[in-house]
Amino acid sequence: MSLNVNELRRLSDLHPKPRAIQFQYGTAGFRTVASILDSTLFRVGVLAALRSKRLDGKTIGVMVTASHNPEADNGVKLVDPRGEMLENAWESHATALANAPNTPALIEAVEHLVKVAKIDLNKPSRVVYARDTRPSGASLVRALEDGLKAIGAETRDAGVTTTPVLHYLVRAINTKGTKDEYGPDSEEGYVAKLTAAFKKLIAGKAAIPLLVVDCANGVGALALQKFIPALGNSITLHSVNDDISTAGALNNACGADFVKTQQKLPASLESLLHPGQRGCSFDGDADRLMYFYLDERGRFRMLDGDKIASLVAAFIVELVKSAGLEDKIKVGVVQTAYANGASTKYLSERLPVKCVPTGVKHLHHAAEHYDVGVYFEANGHGTVLFSPETQQALREHQPAIPAQLTALTHLLNLNDLINQTVGDAVSDMLLVEVVLAHKSYSGVEWDSLYVDLPNRLVKVKVANRNVFKTEDAERRLISPPTLQAKIDELVRKYEDGRSFVRPSGTEDVVRVYAEARAKSQADDLAFRVAGLVYDEVGGDPGLRPREFL
Ligand code: 16G
Ligand code: MG
Which of these CATH numbers, 3.30.310.50, 3.20.110.10, 3.10.450.50, 3.40.50.300, describes 455-548? Predict the structure, then answer.
């Protein structure tokens, strides 16, 4: 079988690439204003179909979402057969196809890809896709479908759902009927799997206090509507910001990204949360989770991805020990440079901790090296991975005493409760609730595991962020050449000071992170480092003041 060039040409002509725009498959796939993405979606369809052929007809996933970005943006990313992010090498193929200036150039790029990637066009091709609630999603999915059709893929439309459900589906479809079967390959099956595990894990525990859930006016609201009846009276979830029909509401002054970056409660929750009560926020595609509570004086306290990692990792370590498996199963944690220094200190005193560059794919791969790998970004994206050997060890372990059996059963149920393909706000929320129920913790006790160092994140707009190059998991700059030495000199002046600079993978900016003993110092350090960055790239001195804070 060869490429159906006529069909590819005919369909590609329906989705011309806008001129003078360069697309890049970055950490979050392609992401930009929705109105210029039509050709990119078509080409991603072509690419996904070819990737499936390359992998012998295994099902590839495509998710249409722009996560926490404004509603007018959209994006698309590919999911590999085990539910993980697209393999690195194919990111550049994606970029190449997206940037072919016209149909003839696209056909040439596709033929080139078939050759270099050794794609056997006789193989079957299977792709499952989904989108979030963005108004632009439906038409972008049509462009994607044209791309899939151009290569003749068998397709499955998973409809409007969360990013983690799509990742789950990919793994469930590809493992169906094998010894690694991940679960039923439907959204209902996913809800049933997680709910059953949750109920077993909290059986016999004290009733869980009501939890307020901010759905960012996004697709997480739909997911929650399916979970609430399935969870029955095991937990009461009060869903807010679940308006998916009002234009402009998505991610607007709510959601996990708002909570993390503003470090405050969304105004829409102010009258709902009372002192002592905890709540949580999903982001726009429900793969991130932030917790928070109001202290006795009604002050907002945030429990971010680092706090979730600390809570969960410590709990799993305890269970492994209680099950009598501590010699067989080693638990480790993966973080990024954005992890609060206090969390790294807390975790390092208890278990191995590794720091990797930003982006889920880096964390996920590093976590696979542990028997149980807990990874969370401070922004709330994360999960826990049980290695295949660990899962087998759990299934085969013969407990010596009843207490060991109890802990072992909990570990097996956690293995089912956790979506191990990618960060999943709903699954992570249920996981946190399990740990809180087992430890009889309220937000206060959880929060007191360690005290966050005050920190500040700022961004600096630069002409070309590619001149910024980093090493040591993004903690140090190697280019521009003299900047790191200047940052080091500054940082030394601050108590518990730490600061790093990295180019964003999703926006045309450079990000500056700083932390220090006092909030005013963290702000000051961030401002000064941003100033160094600004001077280095030769910005207009008139714009230099606190503008980028
Ligand atoms: C993307 C990443 C997220 C990362 C963020 C950093 C995935 C699925 N998402 O949203 O993990 O924290 O980018 O953005 O990998 P930045 O490079 O602009 O700082
Ligand atoms: Mg997201």
Answer: 3.30.310.50
Ligand 1 centroid to 359 CA: how many Å?
Answer: 5
Low-confidence ranges of the chain (pLDDT < 70): 538-549
Is 520 annotated to bind ligand? no
Place of tokens 């706000």: 425
**pLDDT recorded at residue 538:** 66
CATH 3.40.120.10 fits 5-160, yes or no: yes
pTM above 0.90, yes or no: yes
pLDDT reported for residue 463:
83
Domain 188-301, what fold? Alpha-D-Glucose-1,6-Bisphosphate; Chain A, domain 3 (3.40.120)
Can you give the residue ranges of every domain in the chain? 5-160, 188-301, 305-447, 455-548
Which atom number of ligand 1 is nearest to the Cα of residue 27? 15
Pairing of strands 59-64, 73-79: antiparallel
Rounded to the nearest angstrom, the distance between the alpha carbon of 67 and the centre of ligand 1 is: 10
- Is residue 68 within 8 A of residue 251, CB to CB? The reply is yes
**Encoded amino acid at 453, one letter:** L
User: What token pair was written down for 47?
Assistant: 């690419």
pLDDT of residue 77: 98
- Which residues make beta-bridge pairs with 74? 32
Which CATH code is given to the segment(s) 305-447? 3.40.120
State the pLDDT at residue 486: 97
Tell me which of 39, 67, 234, 427 is the catalytic residue: 67
Pocket test for ligand 1, best of 73, 361, 381 (most atoms within 8 A of CB): 381
Q: What CA–CA distances, in Å, run from 185 to 67, 167, 171, 228, 416?
A: 23, 11, 8, 20, 14
Question: Which ligand sits nearest to residue 24's alpha carbon?
Answer: 1
